[in-house]
Structure to design on (162 residues):
């Protein structure tokens, strides 16, 4: 019988807390407007075409993700070359202070070589609750292809209002 009373009291307290939280304010999801981080001339930008050197071209400016629960990334890319032999590789590195960056990407996504005769588009969602800063970069997976590309992102946060 004591167990049942404990459960009832616990449920009552939980319900009271939930009612109080609901009465105190509203929590809504906010998705910022997309921001273009980098783009080559094909995408109306001024970033150089991605070289065929198998090293990351990291963005010069990191993104402060403090308070965000996620980041949505849209990646457009197109092979400049006709042989389409190399993979296109996208990476995300992290930092605690926006100055000292990890040398190994926290996330790396390889998009296999395929028919790049039309512009390709990929969309990714990342959990960034454990990071303070993120940065994005791209590289060619081989030495045959160069790529045009555009990286855009938007942060996902929660708004609280009373």
């Amino acid at each position: 019988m004591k167990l049942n009373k404990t459960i009832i009291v616990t449920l009552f307290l939980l319900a009271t807390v939930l009612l109080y939280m609901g009465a105190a304010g509203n929590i809504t999801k906010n998705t910022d407007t997309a921001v273009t981080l980098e783009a080559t001339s094909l995408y109306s930008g001024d970033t150089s075409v991605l070289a065929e050197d198998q090293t990351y071209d990291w963005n010069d400016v990191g993104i402060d993700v403090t308070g965000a629960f996620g980041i949505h990334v849209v990646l457009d890319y197109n092979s400049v070359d006709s042989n389409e032999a190399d993979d296109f590789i996208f990476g995300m590195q992290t930092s605690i202070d926006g100055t000292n960056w990890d040398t190994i990407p926290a996330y790396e996504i390889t998009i296999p070589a395929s028919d790049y005769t039309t512009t390709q588009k990929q969309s990714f969602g990342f959990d960034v609750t454990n990071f303070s800063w993120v940065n994005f970069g791209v590289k060619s997976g081989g030495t045959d292809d160069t790529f045009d590309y555009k990286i855009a992102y938007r942060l996902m946060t929660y708004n609280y209002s009373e």
Q: What stands out?
A: The helical segments are 2-24. The longest helix spans residues 2-24.
